[in-house]
Amino acid sequence: MVKNNRTNEEDLREAAKENARIAKQEMAEQQVREAEEEQREGQKY
Predict the structure, then answer these.
(1) In the chain, how many domains are there?
(2) Is 41 helix (H, G, I), strand (E, B) or coil?
(3) Alpha-carbon distance 17 to 23, whole Å?
(4) For the residues of 4-33, what is the DSSP string, one character each?
(5) How many degrees, rounded to 5, is the angle at CA 16 between CA 11 and CA 18?
(6) pLDDT digits (tens, 9 = 90+) for 9-41
(7) What's the domain range around 2?
């Protein structure tokens, strides 16, 4: 079935929102990993 342009634009917007959500989540996870690593480094000394 062929989608019209409006549907395609809506799909693209939804995909962009999902990509932004994933990027935000990955960034938060990276910050947690870095904080944990810094904490471990601090405990070594």
Answers:
(1) 1
(2) helix
(3) 10
(4) PHHHHHHHHHHHHHHHHHHHHHHHHHHHHH
(5) 95
(6) 999 999 999 999 999 999 999 999 999 999 998
(7) 1-45
CB atoms near residue 10 (< 10 Å):
12
- Which residue type, as a one-letter code, is found at position 7? T
- Of 19 and 4, which is predicted with more confidence? 19
pTM for this model (two decimals): 0.70
- Residue 22 and residue 14: Cα distance in Å, rounded? 12
Three-state SS at 2: coil
The Cα 38–Cα 22 span in angstroms is: 24
Phi and psi dihedrals of 4, rounded to 5? -85, 170
